[in-house]
Design brief:
There is one protein chain. By secondary structure, this protein is an alpha/beta fold. It is built from 20 helices and 21 strands. Helix 8 runs parallel beside helix 9.
Length: about 550
Amino acid sequence: MPNTDVRRKVNVIGHQHPDTDSICSAIAYAYLKKKLGINAEARRAGLLNRETEFVLKYFGVKSPRLCTDVSPQVKDIDIRCQPGVDGNMSLKSAWMLMRSVEIDTLCITNPKKELLGIITIRDIATANMDLLDTAVLSKAHTPYKNVVQTLEGKMILGDEDAVIDKGNIFIGAATPDAMEEYVKEGDMVILSNRYESQLCAIECGAGCIIICGGLAAPKTIIARASEKGCRIITTPHPIYDVAKLISQAAPISHYMTKDNISKFNLNTPVEDAHKVMANVRFRYFPVLNDNGLYCGVISRRNLLNVHRKQIILVDHNEKTQAVDGLDQAEILEIIDHHRLKAVETMNPVYFRNVPMGCTCTIVYQMFHENNVEIPKDIAGLLLSAILSDTLMFRSPTCTPVDKAVAEELAKIANVNIPQYAEQMFEAGADLTGKNAEEIFLSDFKIFSRGDVRFGVGQGTYMTKKSKVAAKKLVGPYLSKAAAYQGIPMIFYMFTDVPGESTDLMFTGPHAAAIIEKAFHVKPQGDCAVLPGLMSRKKQLIPPLMAAIQEEMQ
């Protein structure tokens, strides 16, 4: 068995419109890989049919998660886990953080990690150029602690957690007489050590005075400011520096972009992310998890290093039957028992294709080769798939190995094969509440021969009554199914298990002639009765392929 990167998740998945073998082989093989130290998970490429639902319920196994596309997603690239920041962070602090972590975009979040907005270095530059707005701190509801931090000062009177909610910024360079004319209630006044100016600002109703140059506030000034409700901040910087710096105390929430933010979910296809990034000016883009909470950022550069999803294919090796996006995934292994129509791979892969009646027979052999014990529930799944694919050993695809393996698995699972098989097939044939499309898709595959694509479905029935009921539902639907699937011909097998025969219904302009060539039987209307035909893989597909090839010539 090949070595696999244990650090990454490996998805083990069967074909679209999965049957029991497709699901059970995925579950069993994923279990085996885990026992061998590989981070593997079974997935399903479509809805479960009722037979498979019965099997999983009978053995108490949870259905694999649905996976319809393995194209790379945002979660498959290296997301930069840059923490979200508080909206009260000052412009200066934001700029310093951007420089230290070498990023030009910050995401603003609340304590719940909900995205509130983003701010870029361009936004900060624009804010710093807005020199004429002296009311910016009050408009932005700036916390006083932002001013203290920005000016590297101390608040010697007042509450740092308080918010500036009114007033303008005023430089007290004028005489006290002039200041009386300009300073209004709530203003923030930048001052030197001139006692008269400090006192004048307080008496004019200033909300805060900032004493520059590292100078201490006189006790009388502190006492009068306390009486008037005026705050005092001291800073080591000169007036010129303070005048330049103070607007940088405004919180980033005032400048952040809140609306029409280009953001991605972890499940966003990389292709979609490319398109969005090509049409917007931002360099970094927020990423949200499945709960809508912020978890990091990505850039265009990140898209250059995509980690393709690692895939193991079971029970098929044809692209037409595979999950979407397979050409963008990394295929590690293929475990199958069908004809070779192998998908193209970028690297050499472990390919195990054995002419058995069931993929699960091969998986059973791999358990033994690796000396891994098979638990009861896994044994039950493996057994069920073998019984399903071989029609309880009636199908010509069944080998002595399939039968011997099934009997061994029945012992482990503590199952009576005839009794259990009858229950399983009856569950699969139950049409209660089902429509034609559901029955049709329960076991349907698309094949190709040259440029010709065609579909083949199969339903197995233990009674003639259930077979007739299925034909009445599915027969009229076949032409619609062909149009929906985009294929010219569809053949559908209604297989009578006890009677060991198949009623083959069809649609398409050349379907009747192909059936006559392939099986030397003249169809009656839209149906041909084929005694002894049980297997799609061994008895139906090869003659159909030959007849189609002849019809194309």
